[in-house]
Amino acid sequence: MNQRHVFGQVFTLETAIASFVFVTILVLLLVAVVRRRARPGTEPSQRTERPRLESYYLGALGAIAVFLVVFTALANQRQQQSDHHLPTTHVDVTAFQWCWSFGYPDSPGGRTAVSGTCRHGDLPTLVVPTGRNIKVRLTSKDVIHSMWIPALRYKMDVFPNHHNSFTLAFDREGRWRGRCAEFCGLRHRTMDFWIKAVSPDEFRKWVQSHAAGATGAAA
């Protein structure tokens, strides 16, 4: 699960830098308060500017900002990378007020689809195989939503009349809860779903059974 690994690297580094900056400023502030406090007979400094010191400070902040922007951009790029040696499974995700619909265009006839109402525990499950690239294509029927999988540390916005896409890969079986992370109306808080990773054999059987059910319903 590459997204989670990349997020952990970025979060750890940015937290370390933020902590270092905070501690440095706190120490300098304490030094200024304790060592430079007014004493009897001490005249306050008449100097209002320190251009050289300020330029060093500005340069350091600029260098840190540039480094963080570049590092984060490269990390986002790594999140989107897929293993070209793995087969790819395509999934179409459609968000609507207030639930989700998952389609499998690679299934027989492209008929396999899963949806729900997101009410009273009726949450749809996005079933995916392990050991494959999962190419997810997102769109919305109405307003802006956001597909968020907290356990994977990954989120992407979902827009109407537009398609966003990203690639996931699961190295183990499991089930995780997903949510809508963009306020989208009255029942936004109930707009959850499950994502379930199963073995390729189990996924194939699941797709065949759902495709057969869809064919029977159509008939």
TrEMBL record:
Top enzyme class: translocase
Enzyme Commission number, as recorded: 7.1.1.9
Membrane-crossing segments per the record: 16-34, 55-75
Provenance organism: Streptomyces longisporus
Boundaries of every Cytochrome oxidase subunit II copper A binding domain copy: 86-209
Protein name in the entry: cytochrome-c oxidase
Family designation: Belongs to the cytochrome c oxidase subunit 2 family.
Catalyzed reactions per annotation: 4 Fe(II)-[cytochrome c] + O2 + 8 H(+)(in) = 4 Fe(III)-[cytochrome c] + 2 H2O + 4 H(+)(out)
Signal peptide region: none
Pfam families from the UniProt entry: COX2
UniProt xrefs under InterPro entries: CcO_II, CcO_II-like_C, Copper_CuA, Cupredoxin, Cyt_c_oxidase_su2_TM_sf
Its membrane topology: Multi-pass membrane protein
Localisation: Membrane
PANTHER family found in the cross-reference section: CYTOCHROME C OXIDASE SUBUNIT 2 (PTHR22888:SF9), CYTOCHROME C OXIDASE, SUBUNIT II (PTHR22888)
Keyword Translocase: yes
Predominant localisation class: membrane
Lineage, uppermost ranks: Bacteria, Bacillati, Actinomycetota, Actinomycetes, Kitasatosporales
Role noted for this protein: Subunits I and II form the functional core of the enzyme complex. Electrons originating in cytochrome c are transferred via heme a and Cu(A) to the binuclear center formed by heme a3 and Cu(B).
Keyword entries, A-Z: Copper, Electron transport, Membrane, Metal-binding, Translocase, Transmembrane, Transmembrane helix, Transport
